[in-house]
What does this fold into?
Amino acid sequence: MLFAQRGFDGVSINEVALAAGVCKANVFHHFATKQDLYERVLAQACDAFGRSLNALELKEQDLATRLRRLVEWHNAFLYQRPHGTRLILRELTGSPTVLERNPVFELVRRNFDRVVALLAEVSDQMREGISPALVAKVVLSLNLFGFQTERLNEKLAVAGSLATRPELQQQLLDLLLHGIEAPNHPP
Amino acid sequence: MLFAQRGFDGVSINEVALAAGVCKANVFHHFATKQDLYERVLAQACDAFGRSLNALELKEQDLATRLRRLVEWHNAFLYQRPHGTRLILRELTGSPTVLERNPVFELVRRNFDRVVALLAEVSDQMREGISPALVAKVVLSLNLFGFQTERLNEKLAVAGSLATRPELQQQLLDLLLHGIEAPNHPP
DNA sequence: ATGCTTACCAACCAATCGGTCAGTTGCAGT
DNA sequence: ACTGCAACTGACCGATTGGTTGGTAAGCAT
It folds into this structure.
């Protein structure tokens, strides 16, 4: 279902019923309230995320390739499940939403920790002062924000001459791994 | 006004009128439709962003300090105008919203180009293959996503031992400038 | 005084909202 | 054949929605 596109308030039960090819009353037969329906859809999306992370195995011990694999997995997941991703993203996004006690936060925290753990295994290859948590945050943030503002990217692509997604991903990894500053330019 | 917190669909004209201390009909005296009201609020937020960028002057020629000044300015702006920021962010965010032809995209494109230009002036201090557009995108994305998921950060802070905002900003700049990988670790 | 405009309001409108209810299918277990 | 139960529906409910109408009060120029 597509709460993802227009949010909780933007979708009426009638629309949901119509999209599902059933009557409105029937929706209330399966779900107690509108919020209940929303929570179940959300829980489903959360579940998919966790299961996909389970399937990810990083055996490489090289920091660069491990990071690349992680980014690729994350990106692929986002674009394979755009609706669920948008749904979760909407819940993460600032100001309190319809759900007072939000299950999404718990999920994200857990999965974030797992990603951090994956990076911590190769933290000896990182520069001093670089924490795996920071790296995880940067990588996931960039992926998520990039996904979230996809339409924006189209418009910026023309203007700022940013590359296509795979190219951009490569450039991004290069930037993160080696930094912006030219090595021959001391402070 | 606070469309920012609950979005276009989440706020009724009655609430707006009540918050403004006037009658509902009076709102329709000043604004033709609800959408008209929304667009004006949005335009106001856009305007504030542009004006703040005008006030930013970067005279430093050092890449590192210039980047730091830019990040600081952007972050300060975001947290000084959280409502407007959230409003704009909501319009940027994926799936088509209430506004079919969205003025926000145009604004963002223009301002993005200006930021890119600011960075391009010191592009000679960047590593080969690093484009100012990419740097701008990374920096602004991280700031925006960080702002957007503020509540998430609170929860992650406990778990992932991420630092407070100013510390985090410093770490982030360090990471971007010098990269993740340890220099004494050849491929 | 008189117009004219602007800010403002109570009352109202049709449409839609989330949600209920009484009743009908169709199908599995006995 | 009878029962029970889940899936399903049309009609309906009060409340709220975006929006309209007719009218009042105040300011200001003539």
